[in-house]
Amino acid sequence: MGAFSNGLGQYQTAQSFSELLVAKIQCQAPRSILDLGVGTGMLTSAAYRRWNNAKFYGTDIDKDSIKKISAELPFVRLFHIDGLSPCLAEEMNLKIGSIDIAICNPPYYRMERSLDIRNLFRRAGLRRSVGLPRITSEVRFLAQNLHMLKDGGELGIILPDGVLSSHEYSLLRQDLLTDHEMIGAIQLPDNVFARTEARTHILLLRKNGSAREECPVFRAGLEGQIENRIDVPTNTLAYRMDYSYHSWRSHQKLSAKAVSLADLNVEIKRGRREKKRLEDACISYFHTTSFPENESTVVDLPTELLCDDTLAEAGDVLLARVGKRCIGKVAMVRSGRQVVTDCVYRIRSREYAKKIWRAFISDSGQEWLRAHSHGVCSRVISKADLLSFRIEV
Fold first, then answer.
1. Mutual orientation of helices 353-361 and 363-372 as an angle, nearest 10°?
2. Which of 2, 10, 142, 226 is the most interior residue, by most CB within 10 Å?
3. Which helix H or strand E contains 167, and what residues bound it?
4. Is there a contact between 373 and 321 (Cβ–Cβ < 8 Å)?
5. What's the predicted TM-score (pTM) here?
6. Start and end residues for every CATH 3.40.50.150 domain found in the chain
7. For residue 71, which phi and psi values (nearest 5 degrees)?
8. Residue 159 DSSP one-character state
9. Is the pLDDT of residue 117 over 80?
10. Which part of the chain is CATH 3.90.220.20?
């Protein structure tokens, strides 16, 4: 199982998940199908097995991939060009807004903001997304595909977890829900891709479609089969689109007495400096690796001199902010004083500290942390989410 990287930031799609993406597209008889970044051709091959009367178009920046796919899939009209080219339609001799179905497993890398990107977002019906805090290749591929689709055309695209779950991409999710129709989202297993634990999703969209009241979110198994489905109100998807969050949300039961940490004016700070910078400065620190490995969630810190970094003191609650397997680590400081790294939150509330600590170490608190974490490889808990955490007072 899995997929492999070709060294150009591209991760090739495993056959079972290619079949799943194609099977979930609703169009029955497309005339044209586009695959930007065709790679090994698994997505296009799966599409051809379902729609062998359509015209197929594909691009790839890798000349070797083009040569190989040309021999294996002679029915595809292939172009050795960058799928993000602003002149894509001209280079492929295609009319903008003419494609029935677009399928895509884009490469993942950060991009510089440019006038071309801003113009593309506007033309693709992603006006708010111009204000995204950072632009990545997969978001631009999403926009490029929408731009090439006709009204009512469908897109099936594989995206990293952050696009569906991170606050950084909330403007993009608002655009997709406001100006297009979300058909569904499928959370894939964390080990779909070889040599990485990246969490990814299949996102299914209809260009300029009408929004539904409810939308299904799915979880897929290791063999590419759908294991679970939840129908969620569409107006909740701008916050998060991932199955893990909505599965947790569908089972949560909050007491009427529960109050958020924000309402309690709880102070939440992350450390100011990275672990390495503190090491270089010979400053003792509390890091994600400092949490007890045994069942104890109480720590005694060495007493350090005051400095201008974020210090944890007796009565503070410490919580892992980021890491591959760190989410859920929580500790209460019993004594001492120590600097915390930028991977740790210090939660301070003299009145409610013990209640906060007990809430986070409880089974429901641990489930909350897992459900609210997001990220492709390392999982992250945002401060905004932490402030929404509720305890009974």
1. 80
2. 142
3. none
4. no
5. 0.84
6. 15-251
7. -75, -40
8. E
9. yes
10. 258-392
User: CB 47: neighbour CB atoms within 10 A?
Assistant: 26
Residue 292 backbone dihedrals phi, psi, to 5 degrees: -60, 140
Question: What is the rounded average pLDDT of the residues 164-172?
Answer: 94
Angle between helix axes 137-148 and 115-123 (nearest 10 degrees) is 40
CA 214 to CA 218: how far, in whole Å? 13
φ, ψ of residue 51 in degrees (nearest 5) = -130, 75
Tell me if residue 100 falls in helix, strand or coil.
strand
Tokens of 174: 């608002």
- Amino acid present at 325: R
Answer yes or no: are the C-beta atoms of 173 and 238 closer than 8 Å: yes
Q: CA-CA distance, 288 to 302, in Å (whole number)?
A: 16
Bridge partners of 101? 33, 154
Bridge-based pairing state of the strands 32-36 and 55-59: parallel
Residue in 305, 68, 327 with CA at minimum distance from that of residue 190: 327
Torsion angle of C-alpha atoms 144, 241, 107, 225, degrees rounded to 10: -110
The per-residue DSSP string of 334-345 comes to EEEEEEE-TTEE
Structure-block tokens of residue 155:
């897109």
Report d(CA 268, CA 287) in Å as an integer. 16
* Mean pLDDT of all residues in 161-180: 95
Which tens digit of pLDDT belongs to each residue from 335-360? 999 999 999 999 999 899 999 999 99
CATH architecture of the region 15-251: 3-Layer(aba) Sandwich (3.40)
Rg of the chain taking only CA atoms, in angstroms: 23
Strand ranges for 97-239 from DSSP E: 99-104, 110-111, 135-136, 149-160, 181-187, 200-206, 214-220, 226-233
Q: Decide: 92 and 145 in contact? Cβ < 8 Å.
A: no
Q: Can you give the pLDDT at residue 9?
A: 44
Calculate the alpha carbon distances from 166 to 142, 143, 192, 232, 238 in Å. Answer: 17, 18, 20, 18, 10
Superfamily of domain 258-392, CATH level 4 = DNA methylase specificity domains (3.90.220.20)
Q: Are 42 and 15 in contact (CB under 8 A)?
A: yes
Q: Which helix (H) or strand (E) holds 385?
A: helix 383-388
For the chain, percent of residues with pLDDT exceeding 70: 94
- Per the listing, tokens 């479609």 go with 209
